[in-house]
Amino acid sequence: MSVIPQNFEDWKVCIEMKCGIPLTLEFAKKRLAVYEDETLAETRRFIKLYGREHLQHIREWFRQIVREEGIKIRF
User: Fold this and answer.
1) DSSP letter at 39?
2) DSSP string for 5-37
3) What is the pLDDT of residues 24-70, one digit of tens each?
4) Integer-rounded Cα radius of gyration of the chain
């Protein structure tokens, strides 16, 4: 079993339950802005540590949070 989450649900549990970070719309947008800019040192460091494939997963998962939380706010 990998320590790095391999799917959205496991990642969400890891972030919210294990790390205690609420996946709010604001948080997701801020993190997505960082991870979408590969010129930033933080993003380059992420790629070096976890690879581009995992970065793509993280981007997709943050986009999913943005969609889901955006829908909740509209209702």
Assistant:
1) T
2) --SHHHHHHIIIIIS-----HHHHHHHHHHHT-
3) 999 999 999 999 999 999 999 999 999 999 999 999 999 999 999 87
4) 13
Q: In sequence order, what are the residues at sequence separation of 6 or more whose Cβ sits closer than 8 angstroms to the Cβ of residue 59?
A: 32, 35, 36
pLDDT at 73 over 80: no
Question: Which of the 8 DSSP states describes residue 4?
Answer: S
Q: What is the pLDDT of residue 12?
A: 96
> pTM of this prediction?
0.90
Residue with token string 């959205």: 8
43 touches 37 (CB < 8 A): yes
CB-based contact 31:62 (threshold 8 Å): yes
Rounded to an integer, what is the distance from CA 29 to the centroid of its chain? 9
